[in-house]
Amino acid sequence: MDTRRLKLVYGAIVLGLTLVWWAGVPSDTWSQGFWAVRRGLLYYSGLMAIGLMSVAVVLAARPVQIERALGGLDKFYRLHKWLAITATLFGVCHWLIEITPRSMVRRGWIEAQVRTPRAAEVATGFDPFRDLHEAAAGVGEWSLYLLLALVAIALWKRFPYRRFFQAHRLLAALYLVLVFHSAILMGPTYWSQPIGPLLGVLMAAGSIAALLSLFRRIGKAHRAVGTIESLTHHADNGVLEVVLRLSTAWPGHRAGQFAFIDFGGAEGAHPFTIASAWQADGRLTFGIKALGDYTRALPGQLFVGQTVNVEGPYGRFDFHALQGRQIWVAGGIGITPFIAGLEALAAGGGKATVDLVYSTRAANAALLERLHRLADAGGARLHLLETPKDGVLDAERLATLIPDWKDANLWFCGPSGFGRSLRRALEARGLPAANFHQELFEMR
User: Fold this and answer.
1) Of 17, 288, 303, 437, which sits with the fewest C-beta atoms within 10 Å of its C-beta?
2) Backbone phi, then psi, for 262, in 5-degree steps?
3) Pairing state of beta strands 307-314 and 258-262?
4) Which of 338, 342, 416 is nearest to 74 (CA)?
């Protein structure tokens, strides 16, 4: 699934919630004056905020049951991000629709709302919509302020990952507060409309996902335990090769998949692509590029025999099928899934005609020797571009290296900007959009 199809899914969710809400809106709502319109928009913005946030929270729980439908964990994390941002924007609109008319009344710009007197009601028994209304309303504004702060932290990529990880767990608790706010303030009228049951299901699913996060149960069924069998630090290109030996069950994986690794400490689990084909021997290899403070520190912190937790496998970077004409393009550490692919080819796991184009600033001699050996064994053609002396890879260069490129499926893994520019250039030259596949390996 490319980003265009992912955008269609995003649009379908937003439009679907809107249409279900619209189906329950009285037809005369928009002709009854300012305050009736304001009330309709107030409910719409609030219902959209909690509905979209519910879907985002469910996706954050990594439900593998829908991974295939959404094209892999990397894809639905992107969808999770879009939905969370949109839900926050609806939340801001909800707050503005709530407070702005009050300010306008105080300034004399509009007349205050005239409320029809209601007959006095005798309170009998417990009514959550009546007895909890004040408490639910009171938590709304402060919850929005905290939500804005936590979303800003999540989007600020320079914020330390471990703090981002902790903030996301706090978001789970905040979501439960917002469910309480929404469920009570919807009132019995909206619960009886078509949007009510739908939001009930979404908020129930989101609440379960939030509790799984708070109690650290997300991904528990997909965890394995192992130890570090070997460590090789390639200082010339800043890559640490980690070989793990698992001591508990692992379902196996396909080339192109990744896993979350927790080396211990407060940092939490990080996602890394698996750089080895599954041989049913309990071994997993990872190539970890020094891209930040955490990964740069790993060579001095890890040791052979250290216990690690692995969660996975995830991802649908499906060149593993190894059928037909394929071009694999790797940028830097993006070579890791293709190493696993070459191993699968060398083991006779596919019948693809493969050209592997590897663009890197610093080529490691041991890695290159391994790539040449695996490519020869699997019948793949290896093209190496060292950018300091060979220049950057672009569409023209690719077309020169591989004349029949238009007949191939192209799989890209590397820097996202590099992938986007290569995609646009190749599609402009005639490559069908469906033939370009890119890993969206960004978890925040």
Assistant:
1) 303
2) -115, 110
3) antiparallel
4) 416
Residue 304 confidence class, pLDDT cut points 50, 70, 90: very high
| Angle between helices 133-155 and 161-191 in degrees, nearest 10 | 150
Provide CB contacts within 8 A for 197, sequence distance 6+.
Answer: none
Query: Which residue in the block uniquely carries the two structure tokens 């040791």?
Result: 303
Spatial strand order of the sheet with 409-413 comes to 381-386, 353-360, 325-331, 409-413, 436-438
HSE (side-chain half, CA atoms, 13 Å) at 167? 18
Residue 68 has pLDDT above 90, yes or no: no
CA distance 241 to 229: 11
- In the chain the first and final C-alpha atoms are separated, in Å, by 19
Average pLDDT over residues 233-248: 90
Q: How many helices (H) and strands (E) does the chain have?
A: 14, 11
Q: Quick one: tokens of 243?
A: 């070989």
CB distance 394 to 425 below 8 Å = yes
Distance CA 433, CA 6 (A): 14
Q: What is the phi/psi pair of residue 98, to 5°?
A: -70, -45
Of 206, 204, 185, the C-alpha closest to 133 is 185
How do strand 307-314 and strand 223-234 relate by DSSP bridges?
antiparallel
Residue ranges of alpha helices (H) inside 107-160 are 128-131, 133-155
Average pLDDT, the chain: 87
Query: What is the tens place of the pLDDT at every residue in 403-431?
Result: 999 889 999 998 888 998 999 999 999 99
Tokens 């309480």 -> residue: 180
Pair of tokens at residue 137: 């309303």
Residue 219 β-bridge partners: none
Structure tokens at 63: 């439900």
Q: What is the spatial distance between Cα 202 and Cα 54, in angstroms, rounded to a whole number?
A: 6
Are 181 and 135 in contact by the 8 Å Cβ rule? The answer is no
CA 248 to chain centre: 27
Q: Residue 313, preceding bond cis, omega within 30 degrees?
A: yes
The Cβ-side half-sphere exposure at 124, using a 13 Å CA radius, reads: 3
Average pLDDT over residues 301-306: 95
The DSSP call for residue 61 is: T
Output the pLDDT for position 291: 81
Centre a 10 Å sphere on the Cβ of residue 349 and count the other Cβ atoms it contains.
Answer: 18
Tell me the residue type at 303.
F
